[in-house]
Amino acid sequence: MKNTIKTLIVMATLVLYSCGGGAQEKKVESKKVETPKKDKVEIVEAEPEVNKGVGPVKNVEVAEAIDAAMVARGTELFNTKCQACHKVEKKFIGPAIKGVTERRSPEWIMNMILNPVEMVEKDPVARQLLIDHNGSPMANQNLTEAEARDILEYFRTLN
Amino acid sequence: MKKLINSLIVLALVGTAISCSNSESGGKSNKGALASSAAEKVYVAPGEHDEFYAFMSGGYSGNLTVYGLPSGRMFKEIPVFSQFPTSGYGYSEETKPMLNTSFGFVPWDDAHHPDISQTNGELDGRWIFINGNNTPRIARISLTTFETEEIIEVPNSAGNHSSSFITENTEYVVAGTRFSVPIPQKDMPIKDYKSNFKGSLSFISVDPEHGHMDIKFQLMMPGFNYDLSHPGRDKSHGWFFFTTYNTEEANSLLEVNASQNDKDFIAAVNWKKIEEYVNNGGGTMMPANYAHNVYDESTHTATTTMKKEVLTVDPLKVPGAVYFLPTPKSPHGCDVDPSGQYIIGNGKLSADLTVHSFDKMIAAIEAEKFDGEAYGIPILKFEDVLAGTVKSGGLGPLHTEFDGKGNAYTTFFISSEVVKWKLGTWEVIDRKPTYYSVGHLMIPGGNSRKPFGKYVVAMNKITKDRYLPVGPEMEHSAQIYDISGEKMELIYDFPTHGEPHYAAGCPAELLKNNAKKIYRLDENKHPYAITSPDQAKVERKGNEVHIYMSTIRSHFTPDNIEGVKVGDKVYFHITNHEQDFDVPHGFSMIGQNSSELLIMPGQTKTNTWEPKKVGVWPFYCTDFCSALHQEMQGYIRVSPADSDIELSWSLGED
């Protein structure tokens, strides 16, 4: 019987609201209660090279030797487009760059540069990095894929 | 328990009845199926785009507003003739020159008639032009950046009203004077106006590549009031038509004294003929002084050049260049149909519309059938050029637009209505009330060879009870009518900002894919730009302190500055290093005698601050830029004027 009453109450409520109601009825929406998250979660990745991230870059061929011309272009691009938030040796607004090619796959790095908004939405590592860096978003600097590749080459020299 | 269940059932049922009947009888929207179909026509679902852009002049706001049709949503206010703290336009060092004139810095104007550039008589979506009526100026606005790029002052003009209409390949933007004045200006009795004052009609050439404007010639006409104008198109391309009033040449109580003549004129100007005359060395160069302000997109900076002469043309020196077409009752609007055949003069003190025929005009000119002359300019016979009269039954016709399907739509100010009539037969097809006292109307492309005749927007002068009252002053109201059928259907009301006089509209497709999203940092040629935060610096030049600053979400580089002193003039040169669409940063400094800046991605802007008090003073970003926007702030230490603290600057630990 209790169940019937409950059902009826729910029904009555539904009916009242479903007609669109007048201004006197305030719409009541249930608020999502977020479960408190831990302040910091260690990102442990067994095989970083497996995670290619989300974005236009599916596969990057990285030669053994470093391409000096690409490094030169990449350095210039990094200095103008990235270093407002990233330092090589230390965490600044975003993470330190040093060693990034050991922590992440080439595809992940390029996708993070080219597609930061979707990366933060869909890639758990990118999302955690955002949380770890005070919610500062990675800016989309509208680079081309070739430019992101040059920056990746520069990063390879920083390990 | 059963009782409880019963009462709940009753509650549910009653509740249903009450709540549903409430929503059905709620407000004025109870118009059954008709109302809901009107709603569907104007409803643009969240996230979807409008079919048309509408650019409405702001009148006394001095600016241009951008709306979507059919939704009536306002997207942007483009600052043109008025200072605009929202972006810093007219306050920033880069944009202050845009408002320079021969009268000095004039931070306001009365913006009237926008017109979109055309190629072959069709809208091409490159630029939009608009006139400043009060201190005569013409502005050109880019339709990729939606920013004012150029303003040229018009000398020898006063009340720049029959402007800014463009010829069908944007050869010229035309600006006619409403008030005649002594040319050149001189100290003389006002009562000697008659036959001593002149009216100038300016043909301003438009560079086909950059759009840069230059006054090609000014036609010095008799001292009438040149009210509105439109270019000939297609078959009448090469001609321009201007309505006149006050052919009485009264200088006082015009309300009465300029309404004496039964007919005034439409002036028909063969500008191709005058252009040829000028190209062959004709015309008289006259000393003048007027400002030409050009904004350079690569330096993000405007400069003013004072021009010192203007070429004038006496119409009597170019035979066959100008004729007068008698038109009843102080005509206001002067509109040309898409074929170029019909020139419509709306006699604002009349009930009827006068339609002149271009072919008949040419025939009368060739046959030299003149009915006298005015100041040496031949007057054609009214009957010889008349194509027909629209017996409208309305009062106070003002403006006409066309749907490209053989119909014309005319506004009637006094009787508050839009009247649809047929070109050629002159029969009235439909009439619908407007709310209230309609001025201009606009059909996208409705003054071109190719109108998009789906909606007409009526721009009303008086609002009264259309919206919730907000004190004595109301925003003006606009109404949208669906004109896809035989009868017009009023489908929506929306408020407009300032006082829209004319408007111009075009399909969204023409512009939306060309709209600029960012300024590329690597194309930034601003002399004070820094393209990398490690170039940030502070320099002293006497009592001027120049701060080269950069922004990115969400910090300024530098954000701590010391060594500034009372009495200094501080220049903030701020480059926004974002390269992502719609991520501007703002900048404001406590106590600035100026406005904030809103700096677009990749852009550099400058404003100044003259610190008056010793202390440590904050600045911050005014545009909510990220989750850490509140943290986007900094401090400047201001020391006494005789302090010897050296300039220093930093960000974080560096």
Automatic annotation (TrEMBL), chain A:
Signal peptide annotation: 1-23
Q: Report the protein name in the record.
A: C-type cytochrome
Question: Which Gene3D superfamilies did the record assign?
Answer: Cytochrome c-like domain
What is the scientific name of the source organism?
Acidiluteibacter ferrifornacis
What positions does the domain Cytochrome c occupy?
69-159
Q: Please give one Gene Ontology molecular function term for this protein.
A: metal ion binding
Q: Which UniProt keywords apply?
A: Heme, Iron, Metal-binding, Signal
UniProtKB/TrEMBL annotation, chain B:
Q: Look up the signal peptide feature and give its range.
A: 1-19
Keyword Oxidoreductase, does the record have it? yes
Instruction: Give the Pfam families listed for this entry.
Output: nos_propeller
- Main location per the UniProt record: other
Q: Check the record and name the PROSITE patterns matching this protein.
A: COX2 (PS00078), PROKAR_LIPOPROTEIN (PS51257)
Assigned keywords, A-Z = Copper, Metal-binding, Oxidoreductase, Signal
Q: Which GO terms describe its molecular function?
A: copper ion binding; nitrous-oxide reductase activity
What is this protein identified as?
A: Sec-dependent nitrous-oxide reductase
Organism field = Acidiluteibacter ferrifornacis
Per the record, the gene is: nosZ
